[in-house]
Amino acid sequence: MAEQNAPPAGPDLTLGIALSELPGDMLVGHVGDDEILLVMSGSQIFAIDAHCSHYHGPLADGLVVGENVRCPWHHACFDLRTGEAVRAPALGALAVWKVECEGDRIFVRERREQPKPRTKGVVESPDRIVIVGGGAAGFAAAEMLRRQDYRGGITMLSSDDAPPVDRPNLSKDYLAGSAPEDWLPLRPDEFYKDSAIDLRLNSEVASIDQGARNVVLADGKTVAYDRLLLATGAEPVRLAVPGADQPHARVLRSLADCRAIIGLATGARRAVVIGASFIGLEAAASLRARNVEVHVVGLEQRPMERVLGPEMGDFIRALHEEHGVIFHLGDTVSAIDGKRATLKSGGVIEADLVMVGVGVRPRLALAEKAGLTMDRGVTVNAYLETSAPGIFAAGDIARWPDRHSNQKIRVEHWVVAERQGQTAARNMLGQREAFDAVPFFWSQHYDVPINYVGYAEKWDQITVDGSIAGKDCLVRYKSRGRLLAVASIYRDVASLEAELAMEVADA
Ligand SMILES: Cc1cc2nc3c(=O)[nH]c(=O)nc-3n(C[C@H](O)[C@H](O)[C@H](O)COP(=O)(O)OP(=O)(O)OC[C@H]3O[C@@H](n4cnc5c(N)ncnc54)[C@H](O)[C@@H]3O)c2cc1C
Ligand code: FES
User: Fold this and answer.
1) Suppose 71 and one of 44, 52, 203, 382 were both cysteines; which one would form an S-S bond, judging by CB atoms 3.0 to 4.6 Å apart?
2) Rounded to 5°, angle at Cα 438 from 312 and 141
3) Degrees (nearest 5) of the Cα angle 396, 391, 87?
4) What confidence tens digit (pLDDT) does each residue in 13-34 have?
5) Mutate to test the pocket of ligand 1, among 159, 228, 255 (most ligand atoms within 8 A of CB)
């Protein structure tokens, strides 16, 4: 039987809808096969594509804030007037539609010509901008430079062998076998040529010559810059035990790492995952989707307790156990001898694949060698400037003054890296914009998404609204009565509202 597409949602907007029929501030309707979101903001009515350009999240379940709508899934934000994705993780603009009012009826019939993004414009126009790193921050910076109408040269140097990819997918759907390879590139190959971004892969930057204002590649070639962005990310910590260098023992950071793990998982009976934190557990879930028996070995007594607290930790453990994962907590692997992984506690697990997910270390060598001010990361100010004139840093390497926690923090979150890349891009053009986004990350385990806003290294109180075990909760982390962070499961609007409240409270 031929597959049929689901009919588009809501009323046909070409036939019009009475203002009084709008339930609240948002309504989904359609024009032909296109689903459109009608949004009332003050006295204005906007019509915009109904789905987020990141992973297709339903914007009608999100939050309207002034002339923006925020996505419920990973907190991207779109300008209702221009369709621009003003906050990552979405990068692509949404189509906007003409709204016509006739009497008390509203009609939507056709798309508007895509408006230009609202930009502050180029205040300073350096001739050559060089970006070191082809990951979240590096890519978002390059894309934002062109969005801001920067016409000078952009060179992006990446030690990876693949163009920038959607890294979070490497432990989730792609590893599970449910996302095709063509979902991974952040942009198709033509984008770089069309946008005049000189992307050079397999290009390791070995040093920075600040006097000559150039970077020196490992092969001795130099590339000149007027502004430089360091976005070198992090690398997985390797396990220092005998046998950890065997071909079936792998870390997961790059597309090449992920392909190697998929190769080993194909036909594998059993895997050992070392590390019971985000990457390890997401990978465990994905390997279970491939019907591989999974043993997770972790030093902690409860998975993710350090970040999410004991109750969430117990829930995550139970969730993975329901899916057949076998935990060995309070333990580690002391040796890998062929297929035999020996536990410190004495047992042996025979495994075709060992995945090591014991944390990452920021890649700081370049910044250290250049003599930049360091503090367990590259120290940057609110504008993401390092201690050296014209050199900026963003993403996993950057420690910045976080307005919300009043601390200098460094995090390893995809959305933060992208948003920092975007802010650094604007500041390389002289726009002087402070980075003030509330940190956000998400993690996915089977059908359970966990969203987290804020930053709580330590807390003295956790309160739970709803039920963690029931997969419907908002968990607040507080210190001396002050809200530091919120984790949630299927409470998307509450999570967006918490983010907004933190923005307003700390403004
Ligand atoms: C499998 C996986 C899943 C993840 N899932 C999530 C998630 O669900 N949610 C979340 O918030 N975060 C997630 N993360 C973390 C997130 O991906 C990182 O925080 C983010 O990628 C950091 O961006 P970045 O630009 O700082 O570094 P990266 O994205 O790591 O990019 C660094 C780039 O710099 C290049 N580079 C390094 N040194 C040099 C050099 N000397 N010369 C040239 N190039 C160099 C690298 O090759 C790479 O291209 C995940 C990470 C992994 C590995
Ligand atoms: S689906 Fe909208 S931000 Fe991810």
Assistant:
1) 52
2) 120
3) 50
4) 999 998 787 777 899 999 999 9
5) 159
CA distance 59 to 62: 5
d(CA 413, CA 420): 11
Give the helix ranges, DSSP H, for 400-471. Answer: 414-428
Q: Say how far residue 396 (Cα) sits from the centre of its chain.
A: 11
Q: What phi and psi, each to the nearest 5 degrees, are found at residue 294? A: -120, 130
Whole-number Å distance, alpha carbon 165 to ligand 1 midpoint, is 9
Q: Taking the CA atoms of 393, 396, 398 and 402 in sequence, report the sign of the dihedral they define.
A: positive
pLDDT value of residue 507? 67
95-129 in b/e form (b: 16+ CB < 10 A) is: ebbebeeeeeebbbeebeeeeebeeeebeeebebb
Distance (angstroms) between ligand 1 centre and the Cα of 136 equals 6
Q: For residue 117, what is the DSSP state?
A: P
Q: Whole-angstrom Cα distance, residue 299 to residue 358?
A: 10
pLDDT in tens, 171-223: 999 999 999 999 999 999 999 999 999 999 999 999 999 999 999 999 999 99
Q: Token pair 């989707």 is at which residue? A: 289
* pTM listed for this prediction: 0.97
Residue 73 Cβ contacting ligand 2 at under 6 Å: yes
CB 251 within 8 A of CB 356: yes
Separation between Cα atoms, residue 383 and residue 120, nearest integer Å: 16
pLDDT at 119 > cutoff 60: yes
- Residue 162 is encoded by which pair of tokens? 């693949």
Task: Supply 324's token pair.
Answer: 């057949």
Dmax (CA) of the chain: 79
